[in-house]
Amino acid sequence: MFEIWNKTLSRTEVSRYLSREEYVVWENLPLQKQRSWLNGRLAAKRLLQKGIKQASGKRLSFAEIEITSAGKRPVFRCTRQGGDFHPGNHCLSISHTKESGIAALSFIPDEGLVGIDMENERQFTAAFLEAFLTKNERDSIFLCPPQSRDAYATLYWCYKEAYLKARGTGLRTHPQSIEISMDKNGEPSELRQDGRKTAFRSKRLALPGRKIGVIVYAPIG
Amino acid sequence: MTLEERTISFIATTLKKDPQVVGLDVKIEDLAEDSIELFGLISSFEKEFQLEASYEDLLDIETVGDIVAYLRQKGVE
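Structure tokens for the assembled complex are given below, as produced in the milestone run.
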């Protein structure tokens, strides 16, 4: 499951959507980070609200679903009983840009761990490409038509970051330790971490504008 | 130019920020727009300051002042 949020709230509305602890975190963020953080949180809360309703018939308000961090991974709890929807069985991932937030949720026993990433398509310098892509990946970019290369490179970043989020390390693991084989349409066929082939599933998201987003599922362990 | 000034100038230029907002007590992740910018900044430190730095060490750095202290520890002046 995934959800996107791009509605702007007034400061008064924000207090109704966040728990007291979340509000304190939000208030203490630099002003330029508040909106993107909120977008990500609200996408996650709406997703969880739907999941809880589906699983247990209970409708919790946004403020009753609290999201915090455990290391690099967001975790959630329901401040009111969420019925049969157990946080421990679910994996949550959040990504955000200035304009919108996006969240993905997996039911761990069936789907494994999940990571989501969304970026605005952008131009990368040669130095940046060299820093985060392997040689094989850089070579594959140059097989694409020139007008597609920026999107293709952004897609590589999204897949890597989403996978590392699913793994729980985020960018503490160097992106070059992951090598992805993608066809010219941007479909990944193989993922290797530190040279070893790794099981994964992925889904590319249809997003507005020049936004690129992916979800990656990875097994536990 | 002091190491502090050089570091602030480098970060401001790389992240396209006004140097006035790049204070020594400011968190690096608060200056970067997103993870791509943050990674780009971290990756470019080695080349800019000609040092051998481990990626993990650089990720542990929190503020601009921490970067200056790290560079000094690595013998950069």
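Residues 31-56 of chain A form the longest helix (26 residues). The mean pLDDT of chain A is 92. Further analysis is deferred to the final report.
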